[in-house]
Amino acid sequence: MEAEHVELRTLIAAQYKPVTSLTGPFDNVPVPAMAQEVDGLDYECELVAVIGKEARDVPESKALEYVMGYAVGDDISHREWQLKRGGGQWALGKGFDGWAPFGPGIVSSNIIKDPQTLHISTKLNGKIVQESTTKDMVFGVAQTIAFLSQGTTLLPGDLIFTGTPQGVGAGRKPPLWLKDGDMVEVGLEGIGTCTNKIEHIKSRPKL
Q1: pTM value?
Q2: Pairing with 7, which of 64, 162, 167, 170 sits 20 to 30 Å away (CA)?
Q3: Nearest-CA neighbor of 142 among 7, 12, 27?
Q4: Is the pLDDT confidence value at 6 over 70?
Q5: What phi, psi does 15 have (nearest 5°)?
Q6: 62, 57, 67, 77: which is closest to 17 by C-alpha?
Q7: For the segment 151-198, what is each residue's pLDDT rounded down to a tens digit?
Q8: Alpha-carbon gap, residue 160 to 154, rounded angstroms
Q9: pLDDT at 111 over 70
Q10: For residue 163, what are the CA distances in angstroms to 38, 46, 49, 168, 201?
Q11: Contact at 8 Å (CB) between 21 and 94?
């Protein structure tokens, strides 16, 4: 399969996921009926920064002081809903229940001093589909926190999914979409691995 073509952004593309999208490192990822209507379900391994204290208008030079710790997460996304339907529904295309598994724990920033030196990867059904290092991130953790805190207060416990390396299903030819029963493993050096099964949810009968 052909790797995706990457165009580097000059500004961070930010979107929000609801708290209901969070799920555990070994839970199934539920795919509701409306997300089963068309292909487009995708994986995104990401370093997750956990905010430890209130942050607003933080300079990049001090941004890492606001991080409590780090985890790894999978920013599950449905490209059809995210980019095409309704003119683009980023929140809906990424925010279904259980579409942000993360963990398997939170490693203190006292242990991980430099988040830009970590190996990160995704396996789909045991095969590596993403493999990179956080030093190759277009926007580093400190830069991301500084950007997001401009005019918006970040609170303790906020989770920042910091972007994914190349290799996502949408960028492949042909596209590689997640299917019912697929096993996805996202791993980050020094933190561990989240292993989640894709589970299509059956429609509830109408009364």
Answers
A1: 0.90
A2: 64
A3: 12
A4: no
A5: -145, 160
A6: 77
A7: 999 999 999 999 999 999 999 999 999 999 999 999 999 999 999 999
A8: 10
A9: yes
A10: 25, 6, 11, 11, 27
A11: yes
Could you tell me what percentage of the chain is helix, strand and coil, using 3-state DSSP and rounding each to the nearest 5?
Answer: 20, 35, 45
Report the distance separating Cα 18 and Cα 188, nearest Å.
23
For the chain, the distance separating the N- and C-terminal CA atoms, rounded to the nearest angstrom, is: 45
Q: Which residue has the tokens 């493993």?
A: 185
Say how far apart CA 202 and CA 113 lie, in whole Å.
Answer: 44
The mean of the pLDDT values for the chain is: 91
Residue 169's SS3 state is: helix
Pairing relation of β-strands 45-51 and 77-78? unpaired
DSSP state of 140: -
DSSP label of 155 = -
Q: Would you give the DSSP letter of residue 172?
A: S
User: Do 191 and 48 meet the contact criterion of CB atoms below 8 Å apart?
Assistant: no
